[in-house]
Specification:
GO terms for molecular function: carboxymethylenebutenolidase activity. InterPro entries: AB_hydrolase_fold, Dienelactn_hydro, Dienelactone_hydrolase-like. This is Carboxymethylenebutenolidase. Keywords: Hydrolase. By secondary structure, the protein is an alpha/beta fold. It has one domain: Rossmann fold (3-Layer(aba) Sandwich). 38% of the residues lie in helices and 20% in strands. It has helices spanning 43-54, 79-91, 94-112, 124-135, 149-152, 176-187, 214-231; strands at 2-7, 13-19, 31-35, 58-62, 117-122, 140-144, 162-168, 193-197. It has an 8-stranded mixed beta sheet with strand order 1-2-4-3-5-6-7-8, sandwiched between helices. Helix 4 links the parallel strand 5 (117-122) and strand 6. Helix 3 packs across helix 4. The chain is globular.
């Protein structure tokens, strides 16, 4: 695990966490652009990166808050740091962020020598990977409890990359009426899928988080792997 530089806008660089696949020949393994929550590349996200690498995926996770505070890591249990993450998220410009994510995908393809690349994201990242599905040259996307998807999904082109959504039943950011909009959008798209996790709240897959549910997180991981294996086979 190490941090590498990615060339981005206007001759600047953005750091990204690079975790090669734990396989005999990592460059032959599929890959993931891992997209953060609002807390930067903190301990929980680094652990998720290692977990995906242990499952045989090359992982590259960009520091999407680099324009505001490069290298920032935030603790969701500290109110001031939580609010700082929200503030950074609200300051982000979609076009700039998607350009950063495409630069990450391109760097990942360069590192491994092929384009069998998915995007996996959590919370804010769960929204961004679905936006990537419509704008960035990924094979598929996996969204964990993405926010604001009810406004993102209807605007996606018909040929957006196939995506799988993990939805928490008790997620206050996605109340029942909003959830139904999201589900209907998923169901009308060929090859897309979703799973609803009963009695689970937002961030149920965040390691050591307040809402972590081990069984649900494990199920979500297995469903994600099956989905990615199907779409990253060639």
């Amino acid at each position: 695990m190490s941090f590498i530089d990615i060339d981005v806008a206007e001759g600047q660089t953005m750091q990204a966490l690079w975790v090669p696949a734990e396989t005999a020949e990592p460059k032959k393994a599929p890959a993931i652009v891992l997209v953060q929550e609002i807390f930067g590349i903190n301990d929980a996200l680094q652990l998720k990166a290692k977990q995906w690498a242990s499952q045989g995926y090359n992982v590259l996770c960009p520091d999407l808050f680099w324009r505001f505070e490069p290298g920032v890591t935030l603790d969701p249990t500290i109110p001031e740091e939580f609010e700082k993450g929200v503030d950074f998220m609200q300051k982000m410009q979609t076009a700039d962020t998607l350009a950063d994510l495409e630069a990450t995908r391109a760097k990942l393809a360069e590192l491994i020598g092929h384009d069998r690349i998915a995007a996996v994201g959590y919370c804010m990242g769960g929204r961004l990977v679905v936006e990537m599905a419509g704008e960035v040259n990924i094979k598929c996307a996996v969204s964990f409890y993405g926010v604001s998807l009810e406004s993102v999904l209807p605007a996606l082109p018909a040929d957006a990359a196939v995506s799988f959504l993990h939805i928490a039943e008790l997620d206050s950011y996605v109340p029942e009426d909003v959830r139904q909009i999201i589900i209907k959008e998923v169901e009308r798209r060929d090859g897309w899928g979703y799973e609803l996790y009963e009695n689970c709240d937002h961030a149920f897959a965040r390691p050591n988080g307040a809402h972590f549910v081990a069984d649900a997180a494990a199920k979500a991981e297995q469903l994600s792997i099956a989905f990615m294996q199907k779409h990253l086979a060639s």
